[in-house]
Amino acid sequence: MSGIYIHIPFCPQKCIYCDFYSVRMSESLAGEYFAALGKEAEFRMAGYFPSNEHAGLPGAACSGTNDSKATDNEGYPQTIYFGGGTPSCIGIGHYERFLGKLKKITCLDHVKEFTFEANPDDITEDYAKGLRKIGAGRISMGVQSFIDHDLKWMNRRHSSEQACSAYRILRKAGFANISLDLIFGYSGLSMEKWKYDLEMLVRLGPEHVSAYQMSTEPGSMLASLIRKGRYAELADEECERQYAYMQEFLKEAGYVQYEISNFAKPGYEAVHNSSYWNSEKYLGLGPGAHSYDGKSVREWNTPDIGFYIGSLLDGKSCMAENDHGIAHGRRPCAEAKAFRTEREILSEKDMFNEHIMVGLRKSSGIRIKDLQSAFPAFFPRFENTAARLAGKGDIVEENGTIRIPHSKFFISDSIIAELFAD
Ligand code: SF4
Questions:
Q1: Dist CA 18 CA 85 (whole Å)
Q2: In what order do the strands lie in the sheet with 396-398?
Q3: Which of 83, 107, 225, 323 fits as disulfide partner to 62, beta carbons 3.0 to 4.6 Å?
């Protein structure tokens, strides 16, 4: 299902492992930022989703009209995802106004999943009520650990108790679909501590769990600690042990692993994220956000909030590089400082490799027939390699699909790389 991702690049403080683009937040900056987001949505929506203007609904919400296009969910956004950064460090009023604007641009009546990323220490009763009011139905909360010492080391803003209390507040506010994030695979996380994290998580009982191995990103504080000899990564074998333990533990607790890093109670698989793994189109708004047309075009915005706001609000925005965009009334990109979206046209080989990469992350894998008909030129080599890997038990072929067994998910990167076309 195709959807809209809205990037909120504000973080009150930087986590030790993170090198995502983010800046410190201020109310005035947030005001300008949301105004710029509204402009970008106006400029780019038509390239991805039918606009109300095209549906004959200028400036009107789609619900309650008799327009046939407005009742056809094909083509309209079906998911909304506010991610970051830290969306929850921004007041609800900004989201309310922005969503009001978005509704005037395209029809949001067909949205089936509306996810909002939150940090535990931002969640108050009022904030949770506000989230319900703007229509959020799914919360993704970055807990990362239930051990205060480890949270402090990660430079997270919250404590274990705050995470539990935020969870209870969200439940009380009526959220019936909550996802919690955990991190494993760092030095200092013993197996005993990891078991404790997982037990605490299961005791809370979220519908969805995302668990990521801590990795050393080049621009992060962690990378600098390593350079200074103050941190050493956890051995791969130990990370694998923690991953395998988690798989078994969550399975026992009733969670189904449907992707390398994601587990859900039946029926609660993330819809928005699934569009990434199913190579479906999505529009990303905000600096650093990526978009994909579902075919061969990837686009992304420069991760620079100053440039983003300045260029979008000074009236010089353009989409000359984007042949999806309907550039009515916009100035050419040749004018200095104009907002532009970078784009890449994927070759056949790129598309094949992407299809393999995202498809094999899923427990359900890839349909062999689909691959064969979409990429006949690359299929023979793929088939040979797949047969060899199947002989080693690295992949499984059954019922017309090819997938990586859960027991090999930890080494999926190397398996997937072998299947790439070169
Ligand atoms: S809250 Fe998220 S985006 Fe912000 S610094 Fe931490 S990990 Fe990075």
A1: 10
A2: 366-367, 401-403, 396-398
A3: 107
Protein residue closest via CA to atom 3 of ligand 1: 85
Map out the domains of the chain as residue ranges: 3-277, 348-419
Q: Is 265 exposed, middle or buried (0-12, 13-18, 19+ CB in 10 A)?
A: middle
Is residue 420 within 6 Å of ligand 1 at its C-beta?
A: no
CATH number of this structure's domain 348-419: 1.10.10
In single-letter form, the type of residue at position 296 comes to: S
- Ligand 1 centroid to residue 30 C-alpha, Å: 17
Output the tens digit of pLDDT for each of the chain's 422 residues. Answer: 899 999 999 999 999 999 988 898 887 789 999 999 999 999 899 889 987 764 444 444 465 444 444 444 668 999 999 999 999 999 999 999 999 999 999 999 999 999 999 999 999 999 999 999 999 999 999 999 999 999 999 999 999 999 999 999 999 999 999 999 999 999 999 999 999 999 999 999 999 999 999 999 999 999 999 999 999 999 999 999 999 999 999 999 999 999 999 999 999 999 999 888 888 999 999 999 999 998 899 999 988 888 888 888 875 444 433 333 333 333 444 443 567 788 999 999 999 999 999 999 999 999 999 999 999 999 999 999 999 999 999 999 999 999 999 999 999 999 999 999 98
Cα-to-centroid distance, 36 and ligand 1 (Å): 22
The SS3 of residue 242 is helix
To test the ligand 1 pocket, which listed residue (17, 22, 157) has its Cβ within 8 A of the most ligand atoms? 22
Return the DSSP state at 13. Answer: S
CB-based contact 25:32 (threshold 8 Å): no
The domain made up of 3-277 is a member of CATH 3.90.79.10: no
Q: Which two tokens stand for residue 148?
A: 């205060």
Kindly state if the Cβ of 14 falls inside 6 Å of ligand 1: yes
Assess whether the C-beta atom of 85 lies below 6 angstroms from ligand 1: yes
Q: Whose CA is nearest to atom 5 of ligand 1?
A: 14
Question: pTM of the entire structure?
Answer: 0.91
Is the distance from the beta carbon of residue 212 to the nearest atom of ligand 1 less than 6 Å? Answer: no
Q: Whose CA is nearest to atom 8 of ligand 1?
A: 18
